[in-house]
Amino acid sequence: MNIIVKPYGSDICYCRPDTTWERENKDFYVPECAETLFWTPVILARVSKAGKCVGKKFVSRYYDTVGCGILLYIGQDIAFASCADHTSLLPTPSSAPELFDDEDTFFEVMKNGITLSRSEDLQKEDLENAICKASELTTLRIGDFIVSELGPMQILARREDGKQELTAVLSGNEIININILF
Question: What is the pLDDT along the chain (182 residues), one digit of tens a residue?
Fold first, then answer.
C-alpha cells in the first residue's frame, strides 16, 4: 500500500512508506533526533481501481471513499521528515466522495483544545488533481491512499512544550485524538 502525497503548492508527489500510517489513534512519541514537530492538514481518497496516467475525464472512477487527516513531519527535509513511523494520521476513508460537495462539511484540527485549522471548503477537485498528478509517475494500486495537503507545513510542537493533545473533527465527528509526547 502506498501513501502518495501531493504537498501544498507543489505539483510533485512523493510516497510515504506504509509504516508511517497510524490508524489506531495511538500516542505519538517524537524520536530523540527531533526537536520540533511540524504538521499539515490533508484530504485523502482511497484508490479503488488500479491505473496509470489517469486523465481528468476518468479520475472519478479511480477512488470510492474520501476523508481527512493529518501528516506529521519530524523536520523540514521531506525525504527524512516524512519517513518516521506513525506520522500519517489517516483514519481509513469511509465517506462517499460527495462528502466534499456538502456545504456543511468541515475539518477542524485542535491542539490542547485550541483550534489550529478549520477548513470549510474541502474540494474534491484537489483530490482528483492529486490522483492525476500521482498517476503520471506511479502506478496506482487498489488500497493506496492519495493525500493532498490543505496548507503549508507549520510547527505543531517543540520538545520544550512537553505533552500536547492533538484532536481532529470531520463534520462534528472526532476522527483523531492522540497525545504528542517528547
Answer: 999 999 999 999 999 999 999 989 999 999 998 999 999 999 999 999 999 999 999 999 999 999 999 999 998 788 888 899 999 999 998 999 999 999 999 999 999 999 999 999 999 999 999 999 999 999 999 999 999 999 999 999 999 999 999 999 999 999 999 999 99
Backbone phi and psi for residue 99, each to the nearest 5 degrees, phi listed first:
-50, -40
The answer to pTM > 0.70 is yes
Grid coordinates standing for 5? 502525497
Give CA–CA dist 84/180, Å, rounded. Answer: 14
Residue 44 makes CB contacts below 8 A (sequence gap 6+) with 66, 67, 68, 69, 90, 93, 127, 145, 146, 147, 148
